[in-house]
Amino acid sequence: MTSTLTPAPSSTRNSLTSGQLTRVQLGLIVVGAILLGALTWVFSGSVNWARWIAASIVAYVAATYVISRIVEGRRKALDRVVVAVVTCAFLLVMLPLVSVIWTVIERGSARFDSTFFTGTMRLTPEDIAAQNEGAAVGGAYHAIVGTLIVTGIATAFSVPFGLFTAIYLVEYGKGKLARGITSMVDVMTGIPSIVAGLFAYALFELVFGPGTRTGLAGGVALTVLMTPVVVRSAEEMLRLVPNELREASYALGVPKWKTIVKVVLPTAIAGVLTGITLAIARVIGETAPLLVTVGLAQDTNYNPLDGRMTTLPVYTYYQYVQPGIPPEAGQNRAWAAALALVVIVAVLFTTARLLAKILKPKGLR
């Protein structure tokens, strides 16, 4: 006597495994939503990117829920909808960033040449005549040098102050002094950049006299803006170090200061370096405080203690609002300077990541 196996009724099947949408099907849903959003061009008679994106997102979320509800069930459909909403939100956030980077690269590449990196704005009459004829003259070498000097001064001041402050707050700070420092750091985090510039300008005017413009003054202004970012980032990274590591070091008789140097800092070095890099990126693009403290120069100045200097943000501002004749030459230099600033920040982030990987303890790599 033989028996045959009959499939279980559909009502008894597990709703979690009754059906699954494949990647191809999910991709077709995305393509269909995009094409459906493109129909808004037909009905409106004009191309409106914002309306197209909004319509595509609505169609994608709705189609995902309906199709998943039919194929996979209610629970999986809700999960698909949440994933779809989060994905669309992420893409919407990324759109402005991608647009800015694309625009800077597209417009800045026109003058991203050797002349731009070796020349200054100390133009001769022959250079001006060549510029009127459409030649690529003038550069931002002096602005790149000024940016590196001023930012280097701010980093040299901010990193020790910020790191030691964070160590004190995490490892030693208790009572009113620690609370007062924390409150002061919170206040400094929200200081407008122009206020930091005016503070540095007033300080140097009192010491060196009216009209003082130096790279050191610009470095002090950026230090006011950079220090609280270093403190906050380093403090959070140090707090993430497990207390068990500290206690194990203390149990071996290691002094507290040596535990901080040999255990705590190496463990948190990756996050600390990332925070320092973020702080540098925060101030390297500042314009307002440097307009007040550093000023503008047409040639290279290597001495931060004497004379005006030019930084890339200030150079970009003046080249765009005062492009000269023809205006396209100055505007091309402004976009190239913006691209150079983006490249410098990208190099800093890459360097910080490499250093963090190299300096991190072997067991944590």
Which characteristics define this entry?
single chain, 365 residues, mainly alpha, MetI-like fold, 14 helices, disordered N terminus
Account of the 3D structure:
There is one protein chain. The protein has 365 residues and is an all-alpha fold. The chain folds into two domains: 17-99, no CATH class; 125-364, MetI-like fold, CATH 1.10.3720. The chain has helices spanning 23-44, 49-71, 74-108, 114-118, 125-132, 141-172, 175-189, 193-208, 215-239, 243-251, 256-284, 288-293, 312-321, 327-359. The N and C termini lie far apart (65 Å). Mean pLDDT is 84; it is low at 1-17.
What's this model, at a glance?
The protein contains 14 helices and no strands. The protein has helices at 23-44, 49-71, 74-108, 114-118, 125-132, 141-172, 175-189, 193-208, 215-239, 243-251, 256-284, 288-293, 312-321, 327-359.
Give the SSE map.
Elements: H1 23-44, H2 49-71, H3 74-108, H4 114-118, H5 125-132, H6 141-172, H7 175-189, H8 193-208, H9 215-239, H10 243-251, H11 256-284, H12 288-293, H13 312-321, H14 327-359
Helix pairs in contact: 1-2, 2-3, 3-14, 6-9, 6-11, 6-13, 7-9, 8-9, 9-11, 10-11, 11-14, 13-14
